[in-house]
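Long-time lurker, first post. I've been practising inverse folding by hand and with some scripts of my own, and I keep getting stuck on stretches where the C-alpha cells seem ambiguous. Below is the full C-alpha cell string for one chain I'm working on. Before anyone asks, I'm not after the true native sequence, just a reasonable design that respects the backbone. If someone could post their per-position residues I'd love to compare against what I wrote down in my notebook.
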C-alpha cells in the first residue's frame, strides 16, 4: 500500500457511503486493532489502477450534541496525522456550514494534502453548494455523488499526481516529505502562514546546472565540508537532504550534486542532474535556482526554473560566482532584463547575487527564501478580494466579444502553496489570456505576492 487517505467531514455528508464505494467488500480491518479506535475504520481501496488505504472517520452520530464539535475536531486532527491525504467531504445540497468552515481551517493548517469533495451533487440542486465549496480554500472541489458513483474520475485525477509523488518518495527512500504534527496549533494563529518549525522544516531544493556551485553553496551554509565528505543523514539514491538550521530557520535542504561527485559519475552528470532536479523540485516548497554569473540563463536553467513554476513552487533565483564579476552594476541590469524577458512567468521573483565561495550575499539569500515561502503561503480574505475585484473591473473592464461583456461576479482564494484564486464569471472561455494576466499582475502588486506562482481559475456560474 503506497499511501493512505482519510475521509473526513461532519456527520451525514456521505463519508461512509464514499468509503463503501472505494472499498467495496475489501474491508481490511476494524474496531479492535491496536491504535485504531472504534471511530476509525480502515479498508483497502481501489480506484482505477490506484491502490491505497482508506480511513473512515464516521461513527460520530452517537455523540451527544455538546461533545460533538470537540470530538469531531479531535478525530479530524487524528485522521490528518495518520493519513497522507485527507479527503474532505461536504454536503453540496446543504452548502457550506460553519462546522465545515472550522474543519476546513484545521485541514488548511495541519494537512499537507487535502482533496475537497462536494457530495450529493447529482442534479442541479447542488450547484450553489459546489460553488460555495471553492471558498473553503482547499482547491477545486470535486463534484461528487457517492451514492451514484459520480465524480470518481475527478477523484482519480486529483489522487494520481499525489500517488506518483508518494511512490517516488518510497522509491527514492527519501526522508519523510512532511510533517510531524504533534505540536499544538493555536486557534488564533495566523492562518495565512505555517511557519517552519523543527518538526516541520521548510523544504528547500537547490537546483542548477553542473558546476553552478550547488555543493559549494550548501557547504557554505552548513559551514562544514559535510556534503562531499560523506553525509550520514538523509542520503537517498539520487539526492541528498540535510536538516539544517539556517540562521534560526529550520530547513530541510535538498542537494542533487554532492552524491554524484562522490560516486564519480561526472560523465553522466549533465544528463542525470536534470532528473535529479525534477525530483528535488517535486519535494521542495522553495526552489533556489542557482545560476553561474558567467553563463546565466542557459537552456537547462530555463527549463528547471519553468518546471519549478509549473509545479507551483516558490522560486528564488541566485546568481553565483559574483566575486568573479568585474562590472557588477552593468551586469545586474543585464541579468534583470534577461530574467524578465526569458522567465516572464516568474515576474517579481527575487534575484539575489551571491558568492558561494566567499559567503557574500548568503544572508540576503536566506531572507529571500524566507520571504518567498511566506508569500507562497499567503491567504487573502474573500471580502478583500471582492473589494479589489470591483476596483480592477472599473479600472479596466473585461472585453465584450461580439458586444456581450464577460461578467466577473465573485472571487475567492481557493488554495495556498501556491496561491490559487477562483473567479466566477459568465463565459469563462471568452475571457482573453491578457485579462487573466492583468488580474494576476494586479494580485501580485496589490497583495504583495511577488515571484510566487499565482493560479487563476475561471468558472462559469450556473
Ligand atoms: P456519513 O455520516 O458522513 O458517513 O454519511 P453516510 O454515508 O452515512 O450518508 C448519510 C446520508 O446521505 C445517507 O442517507 C446516504 O444515503 C446519503 N448520501 C450519501 N451520499 C449521497 C449522495 O451522493 N447523494 C445523495 N442524494 N445522498 C447521499
Ligand atoms: P555543483 O556542480 O553545482 O555542485 O558545483 P560546485 O559546487 O562543485 O562548484 C563548481 C566549481 O565552481 C568549483 O570549482 C567551485 O569551487 C566553483 N565555485 C562555486 N561557487 C563559486 C563562487 O561563488 N565563486 C567562484 N569563484 N567559484 C565558485
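-- Answer (accepted) --
I ran through it position by position. Result:
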Amino acid at each position: 500500500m503506497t499511501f493512505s487517505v482519510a475521509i473526513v467531514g461532519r456527520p451525514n455528508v456521505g463519508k461512509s457511503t464514499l468509503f463503501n464505494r472505494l472499498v467495496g467488500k475489501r474491508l481490511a480491518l476494524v474496531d479492535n486493532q491496536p491504535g485504531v479506535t472504534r471511530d476509525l475504520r480502515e479498508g483497502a481501496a481501489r480506484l482505477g489502477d490506484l491502490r491505497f488505504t482508506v480511513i473512515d472517520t464516521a461513527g460520530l452520530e452517537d455523540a451527544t450534541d455538546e461533545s460533538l464539535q470537540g470530538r469531531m475536531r479531535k478525530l479530524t486532527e487524528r485522521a490528518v496525522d495518520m493519513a497522507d491525504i485527507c479527503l474532505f467531504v461536504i454536503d453540496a445540497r446543504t452548502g457550506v456550514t460553519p462546522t465545515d468552515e472550522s474543519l476546513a481551517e484545521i485541514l488548511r493548517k495541519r494537512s499537507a494534502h487535502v482533496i475537497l469533495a462536494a457530495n450529493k451533487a447529482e442534479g442541479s440542486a447542488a450547484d450553489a453548494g459546489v460553488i460555495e465549496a471553492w471558498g473553503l480554500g482547499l482547491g477545486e472541489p470535486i463534484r461528487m455523488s457517492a451514492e451514484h458513483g459520480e465524480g470518481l474520475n475527478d477523484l482519480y485525477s486529483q489522487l494520481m499526481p499525489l500517488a506518483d509523488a508518494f511512490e517516488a518518495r518510497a522509491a527514492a527512500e527519501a526522508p519523510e516529505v512532511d510533517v510531524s504534527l504533534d505540536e499544538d496549533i493555536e486557534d488564533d494563529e495566523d492562518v495565512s502562514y505555517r511557519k517552519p518549525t523543527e518538526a516541520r522544516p521548510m523544504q528547500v531544493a537547490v537546483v542548477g546546472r553542473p558546476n553552478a556551485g550547488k555543493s559549494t553553496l550548501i557547504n557554505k551554509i552548513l559551514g562544514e565540508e559535510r556534503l562531499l565528505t560523506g553525509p550520514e543523514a538523509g542520503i537517498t539514491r539520487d539526492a541528498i537532504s540535510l536538516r539544517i538550521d539556517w540562521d534560526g530557520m529550520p530547513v530541510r535542504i535538498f542537494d542533487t550534486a554532492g552524491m554524484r561527485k562522490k560516486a564519480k559519475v561526472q560523465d553522466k552528470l549533465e544528463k542525470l542532474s536534470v532528473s535529479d532536479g525534477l525530483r528535488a523540485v517535486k519535494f521542495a516548497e522553495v526552489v533556489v535556482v542557482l545560476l553561474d554569473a558567467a553563463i546565466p540563463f542557459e537552456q537547462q536553467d530555463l527549463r528547471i526554473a519553468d518546471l519549478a513554476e509549473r509545479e507551483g513552487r516558490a522560486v528564488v533565483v541566485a546568481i553565483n560566482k559574483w566575486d568573479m564579476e568585474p562590472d557588477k552594476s552593468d551586469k545586474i541590469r543585464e541579468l534583470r532584463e534577461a530574467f524578465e524577458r526569458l522567465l516572464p512567468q516568474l515576474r517579481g521573483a527575487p534575484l539575489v547575487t551571491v558568492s558561494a565561495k566567499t559567503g557574500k550575499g548568503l544572508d540576503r539569500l536566506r531572507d529571500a527564501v524566507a520571504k518567498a515561502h511566506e508569500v507562497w503561503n499567503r491567504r487573502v480574505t474573500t471580502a478583500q478580494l471582492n473589494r479589489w475585484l470591483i476596483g480592477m473591473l472599473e479600472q479596466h473592464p473585461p472585453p465584450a466579444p461580439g458586444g456581450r461583456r464577460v461578467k466577473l461576479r465573485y472571487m475567492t482564494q481557493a488554495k495556498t502553496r501556491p496561491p490559487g484564486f477562483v473567479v466566477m464569471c459568465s463565459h469563462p472561455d471568452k475571457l482573453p489570456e491578457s485579462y487573466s494576466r492583468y488580474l494576476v499582475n494586479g494580485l501580485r502588486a496589490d497583495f504583495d505576492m511577488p515571484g510566487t506562482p499565482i493560479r487563476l481559475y475561471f468558472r462559469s456560474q450556473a
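A couple of notes from the structure itself: The pocket of guanosine-5'-diphosphate (ligand 1) is lined by residues 9, 11-17, 58, 119-120, 122, 145-148 (CB under 6 Å). DSSP finds 13 helices and 15 strands in the chain. Happy to go over any region you disagree with.
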